[in-house]
Design a protein that fits this description.
Two copies of one chain form a homodimer. By secondary structure, chain A is an alpha+beta fold. In chain A, 27% of the residues lie in helices and 33% in strands. Strand 7 (199-208) of chain A pairs antiparallel with strand 10 (251-258) of chain B, so a sheet runs across the interface. Chain A binds a DNA duplex through residues 2-3, 6, 8-10, 12, 17-19, 43-45, 53-57, 59-60, 62, 73-79.
DNA sequence: TCGAATTTGTGCGTATGTATC
DNA sequence: GGATACATACGCACAAATTCG
């Protein structure tokens, strides 16, 4: 009865939902350049007409493309193809050249741009996860230092570093950004207290941005972030660990590895 | 008139949309353990009643949680809280132990679980991006092999490999998964045609899942994926490049690097 | 074994708020 | 101000999968 009453028709194409088909065709037009960056997609009403689908399907299709980061909806204006900027590379290879002494350069390693950073240190009890990484008992005191890196004034990277105070306490390098070796790298600072850093482990993952991170880096909560959990070891013992957080759509981490 | 006719009410709480509020409350219940893994969320109808919202809002709220990977919808059954397993580690260090000879183990490197994979190869013209990575001219013929890896039957990893046919064509290792060295690693296969792989570059990034990937790995479009773009070099010349794609919430890539 | 009820997933039409042009 | 377009929201219909008596 009901379909007679309303005259609604649902045609099954057997394969995939209509909104995925529409999204696919639009994606095609974007990736093959027919819809270059900054151009406007057909409006919801146009999609409805051109593809012969309903408003809902047109909306869902746009949502898929937005979720994929291909397009960006601007309320009242349109849906626009996003520029896909060449991502910055964070280059890692274990050793560091003499020119790369600062924390920023160590992580940035991009010679062409100059960055500045702010840092703030405080002492706190180690949270279980951090204690685990530093292989100390949870609740031990650690020096936490938070960094905000900027490139051309724009904040692009967050970093939080933890060092066990049992190691650095009452030494000249207790505060990473102060003293004679202030602002130098972990390797140099640890060398000053006879800790020879010989190994480095980095865990790369990704997760949605925390609200705080989104605020600091000027994005929306939920934006994908790359997280590098890095730990420096001296003779098998962790001497420092840090989380480096960058927007996933603007960064890549590259590793150069010898084979054999 | 209209709102009087229908009795529809749209109350603006000024802050955030209703579907985000509902999603937030459900997320709260999940993260604080009130809704532990494997339990069922209230059905769409229940959400509608309990939160006093419409069907659409309840649906959108569920979609948000699904996009975040917190829950998983099973058609006809319910929406279930996902287990949040400790992320699998993909361990990388450049060299490979003799036991890690297969592609899967090379990428998986998780001794505790056993995986199987399917592969399909075809020949095609190199797309510009791939040609760039292989340092060949765009349009050159390449052998493309696509892998789907499963752990305990569940698909968890996608990988696409490209090799220049100018290198492997008319050799016994032209097809990665066939012939005497079929299924062996890139290093072994290249050695068979006198290409000594000595370097490996990996670029780790993250991006939202393409619809196709989401389908293959059982997620929703937009879910964050880790992408490892890996290139093998023999004497400075690229001999193979591949994209490895895994869900970001279930994997970490770990690199062990010597210092100095 | 069968069938009814439930639930998700997809889809339709419409209304309204609000940002942009 | 008016037109356009996106974002959110309401209500409903139906297919497919699942569950359960």
């Amino acid at each position: 009865m009901s379909w007679l009453d309303t005259g609604r028709i649902q045609v099954s194409f057997g394969e995939q939902p209509a909104y995925l088909r529409v999204a696919g065709e639009l994606r095609q037009q974007i990736t093959n350049g027919f819809l270059p960056p900054h151009t406007r997609l057909p409006s919801q009403a146009r999609i409805r007409e051109e593809f012969g689908v309903s408003d809902t399907v047109a909306l869902e299709a746009r949502k898929v493309l937005m979720a994929e980061g291909l397009v960006e909806g601007r309320s009242g204006s349109g849906t626009y193809v996003r520029e896909h900027p060449a991502p910055r590379r964070i280059r890692r290879s274990g050793y560091r050249s003499p020119g790369e002494r600062t924390v920023f350069r160590q992580e940035q390693s991009d010679d062409t741009v100059k960055g500045v950073w702010e840092a703030r240190s405080d002492q706190r009890d180690a949270a279980p996860g951090i204690a685990d990484r530093l292989r100390i008992t949870a609740g031990s005191r650690v020096m936490r230092t938070r960094y905000l890196f900027r490139v051309e004034g724009e904040p692009v990277m967050l970093s939080t570093s933890w060092e066990p105070l049992a190691l650095t306490g009452r030494s000249p390098v207790m505060l990473p950004e102060e003293g004679p070796l202030g602002g130098q790298g972990v390797v140099e600072r640890m060398a000053a207290i006879d800790q020879v850093v010989d190994n480095l482990v980095e865990e790369v993952g990704a997760r949605p941005a925390l609200a705080e991170e989104a605020t600091a880096l000027g994005g929306v909560p939920g934006r994908a972030m790359l997280v590098i959990a890095r730990t420096h070891y001296a003779g098998g013992r962790p001497v420092e660990t840090a989380d480096v957080v960058v927007p996933a759509d603007r960064f890549r981490v590259t590793y150069h590895l010898p084979v054999r």
